[in-house]
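Human:
Class, as today's exercise, you are to examine the entry below, and be ready to discuss the fold:
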Amino acid sequence: MSVLFETSLGDLVIDLEVETCPKTCENFLKLCKVYYYNLNAFFNVSKDFLAQAGDPSATGTGGESIWSYVASQNKGNEQRYYTPEISPRLKHVHKGTVSMAVAPSLPGQEKGGCGSQFFITLADNIEYLDGKHAVFGHVVEGLETLDKLNEVFTDQDGRPFKDVRIRHIVILDDPFPDPPGLLKPPSSPTRPPDNSTRIAEDEDPLSQLPEEEEERIRREKAAAASALTLEMVGDLPFANVRPPENVLFVCKLNPVTRDEDLELIFSRFGTIMSCQVIRDKKTGDSLQYAFIEFDKREEAEQAYFKMQNVLVDDRRIWVDFSQSVAKSNNVWSNNPKRGMGGGGRGQSGGFGGRDDLVKTSRYRDSEDTRDSGGGYGMVFDVPSDRDAGSRRKRSKSPQPKRERDRDWNRRKRSRERRRSRSPDRDRDRRRRDY
C-alpha cells in the first residue's frame, strides 16, 4: 500500500506497513483522503536527522487523528490522539523511515498518543528514536528529494527560511473502509492553513530583474510614498487619487480669449460640462491657461488630437490632458457637506470627515469659482483680508495726489537750474586757469 507525496522539492513514494500497523496506516490514509496534509509545511528540519510535517498550524503543537477530525465535523467529542502502535521489528535503521510522532500527555489525559504529525528520517541508524515513535512506512522513491530537504537553510528553531510544502497527495491503494461520518471535501485547499511569513515555496529570493524593471519599480514606490505624504498634509484627498481623464488643460492662450470662446470652439467634439479660463483673483486678468471638462473621455481624446497647435485669437494653443486634481480637491476639501459624491470614504464629507485637513487646503474656496459646482482653483496662497489689513496698518498713509505733483515739479525745476548753471561754471574755471 503506497501514497505519492508531491512536494515543492520533488516527489516521494511511501510504502506503508499495513499489516504491522493497521490503525496507524488507516489514520494516515484517511487524513490524506480528506486533504488534511495538502499545503502543509515541513516546519522542523534537522540536518542529518529528520524532517517533520503534518501540523496544519506549523507550530508543532497542532494536529489530530482522523477519528477526532470526523467527530469535530459532526459536532461530536472524541479523543484527539490514539494509542501508538510501536513494533519492536520496525526501527529507524535506514534513511527515509516514516514514523508518527508520539505527543506527550496533555492536561486531563492519562497519556499522549499519535495524531497527524509524522516525520521522515534523513540519515541511517538513528537508534535514538527506536521505541519512542511509531514507524509505519518507508520512502521507496524520491531519495534525491530527501537530499534536497536535508540541505535547506533553517533558522534556530529548525524552520526553513523558504517554505517546503506538501502540494498534493495521491493515494495509490487504500484497503480500509471510511470511518462512519467521514466527509471528503469537494476540492483541495488553495491556501496554506498556517500564516507563514517565510519565503513562498514558489518564489526565488535570488532572482534579479533587469535594471530597467528595477528602476521602474523603484520609481513607482517613490511615487506612492510621495502621494501618501501629500495625503497626510492634506494636499491630496487620498493617496490613490488620479487626475480625471475627461479634462483637458489648454495653455498659451491669448489674454483676450474668454470662456465662451473656448467653449464654442471645443463644443464641436462633444458635450462640455465646464470651461474655465483661470484668472488672477485680484486683478481678474487671464493667466493664459484653462481647463475644459467633457462629458465623456472619448470626446476629450478627440479634442486632444484635433486641437493641438491650433490658432486661436492669433495664438497657437497647447492642449494636453490635465494632471491636476484641484477640481476634485475643491469638491472634497472646500465643501465638506457634499462629501464624496455619494458613497465615499468619509461620512461627513471632506477628507474622510477630517476638518483639520479641510482647513489646510491651499486651493481656492468654492465661493470664488465660476459656478456652484466647483471649479479649478488656484494652487498658490492668497493672503487673507486680515493679513492685508495688518500690512496696511504697518505701512505709511499714501501721499495726496496734489502734494505728489508739487514735489515732482519742484524736483524738475531744480534739475533744470543745475543744468543751466553748469556751462557758466565751466567758463569761469577756464578763465582762472589762464
Observations:
- The domain at 2-171 is CATH 2.40.100.10 (Cyclophilin).
- The longest strand covers residues 286-294.
- The chain is about 30% helix and 20% strand.
- Residues 401-433 form the longest helix (33 residues).
